[in-house]
Each structure stands twice: as C-alpha cells, then as structure tokens.
Automatic annotation (TrEMBL):
Residues 2-289 form the Amidohydrolase-related domain. The lineage of its organism: Bacteria, Bacillati, Bacillota, Clostridia, Eubacteriales. It comes from Clostridium scatologenes. Keywords: Hydrolase. It comes from the Bacteria. This is Amidohydrolase. InterPro entries: Amidohydro-rel (IPR006680), Metal_Hydrolase (IPR032466), Metallo-dep_Hydrolase (IPR051781). GO terms for molecular function: hydrolase activity. SUPFAM superfamilies: Metallo-dependent hydrolases (SSF51556). Pfam families: Amidohydro_1.
C-alpha cells in the first residue's frame, strides 16, 4: 500500500471549481469515484487531503470508504483574512471567526485541522515565503481547540519563522517547510513532528524545464536544492518524513503525483525500500492510522 500524505482532490483534470457547485450530486460523485478508483488501481489506498472550499474532500471521504480507501480530510483549511490560502477554505479575522468555522468543521467531522500559517515560495525572490499570518496566541488557541476535540493539526508553513512558530505551538505535521534552518529540523526531530516536504511541485517544474517559469527557474532550482539538503539532514537525525505530493498543484497530477514524489526522493539517493518505508510508516502517523 502507498500513502499520499498531502493531496487536494478538488484540483484535478475532470472538473473546475466553478463546475462543481452547478453540478448534481450524482455527477460530483462520478467525478470523485473516477479519481479514487484510479488511485486504488495504483495501490494508493490511503490519502490525506489538505482541504478545499467546496466540500469536495468531504464527499470524497464518503466515497473512499465505499471503495476501501482510507481518506482523511480537514473539510476546509483555515487561513487569515488578507493572506494566502482562501481558495483552500475559509479566511478568518480573529478567534471569534475561528470558533464559528471550527463549529462547522466539527459538524462535518473533520479528521484533522488544517491551518495555513505562511505564504508560498516566491519564485521571483529567493527567501520570500510571505508573512506569518497568525499571532502565536491565535495559533496556540487553534491548536489547543483541535487537541481538545481529539484531532491532529496539519500546518502549511514555510520559512524559519513560520515553521518555528508551528513547532512551538505543538502541531502534528509541517507541510512543505521550504527554506528552514538546522534549528527547525532539530526541533521537529525532538518533538517527533512529521514533516511532509512536498518536492513534486518544484521538482516537476524543474524536470520538465517548464517554459512558463523560464525567468524564475534559477530561483526554483535554488529553493529545491536547499530543500533536498534539509531532507537529507532531517533523515540523518531522525525526523519523521512522510511523502506527500501536493497532488492538484501546478504540474502535479492526481494519482501520479505520489510516484513523482517517490522518484524525487530516489533521485536524492534514498533506496526504494527507505522511501517506501517513510511513505508507509510516517504516512500512517500523519494520517493518524
């Protein structure tokens, strides 16, 4: 069995978000069933979604159960109003907003809380990952709420400051984690936080030498190289690394994305057995299996 610890099933080649809300439930089920059956054909039988704003992953979880696939979803992600991430869920402005949205998440039985703490890697400016969106007290409150409810916390974070803040707050997994330092790597190892470093979004752009990014390719390669170096360090000191493809992101297709991720790890120099062990054992922890 293969586990993809980070996907977004709502982003795919079968439908656009604009089509989803105008389509009958039967068609929505048909789309998701087709995707999930393709995963199953390739022996990818456990998936962890990073959320969407249209409840597609919520329906996918229901269908996955019928198809014999383990599926975890946060329902939708939580981000800060005016910051990156609203297309993956709900933007909040303060803890009263969070309380309201968390109530909705609980009604829909979230499997984990997804928090978007920083922006994404800026391909035009090396080192830029946007601001840290939430104050420490805000993040701490959201993490505490999830723990009291009994679900793990999945945090999108890049850069030293954002990842450090997530670690201090006691999250369960760090998603992406680009451009971090040795300090954050050691802290993840110490606190047994699972790291899902998602190489495929950048790695696939580099592999195809994508002409859409011809003016940014050097920066992308530089960021990717730092990520590889950090993965090697993290593995050597015992950080629990799980494989997540970020399927649904640009250049990362559903189903095949996790095999791209496996290839990127093998290209670093990890053996297939080591990669599959990370994928299965640490992926199981990420999915709370």
């Amino acid at each position: 069995m293969i586990i993809d610890s980070h996907i977004h099933i709502a982003h795919n080649a079968l439908f656009k978000k604009s089509q989803w809300s105008n389509s009958p439930i039967e068609l929505q089920r048909q789309w998701l069933t087709e995707i999930l059956r393709e995963y199953k054909k390739k022996d990818v039988c456990a998936l962890r979604d990073g959320g969407d704003g249209i409840f597609a992953s919520c329906l996918a979880r229901e269908i996955a159960k019928e198809e014999g696939i383990i599926y975890r979803t946060p329902i939708f992600a939580i981000c800060k109003k005016g910051h990156y991430g609203s297309f993956l869920g709900r933007a909040i402005d303060g803890l009263e907003d969070f309380k309201r949205e968390f109530h909705i998440l609980k009604e829909n039985k979230l499997d984990h809380l997804k928090i978007i703490l920083t922006g994404i890697v800026n391909f035009d400016k090396f080192g830029d990952v946007g601001d840290v969106a939430f104050l420490h007290d805000e993040l701490e409150y959201m993490v505490k709420s999830a723990k009291e409810y009994g679900v793990p916390i999945m945090v999108h974070a890049n850069g030293k400051r954002g990842v450090s803040q997530a670690i201090k707050a006691g999250v369960n997994t760090i998603e992406h984690g680009f451009l971090i330092s040795d300090k954050e790597i050691y802290e993840m190892a110490k606190k047994e936080i699972v790291w899902v470093p998602t190489l495929s979004p950048l790695g696939n752009i580099l592999k195809r030498n994508d002409s859409n990014f011809k003016d940014q390719i050097d920066t992308i390669r530089k960021v990717y190289t730092v990520q590889i170096e950090n993965i090697v360090k993290a593995y050597e000191i015992g950080v629990k690394i799980a494989l997540g493809s970020d399927a649904g992101a640009y250049a990362v297709p559903q189903v095949n994305g996790i095999f791209d991720e496996i290839n990127h790890f093998e290209n670093i120099g990890f053996s297939k057995n080591a990669v599959l062990k990370m994928c299965l054992e640490n992926g199981s922890q990420a999915l709370n299996i």
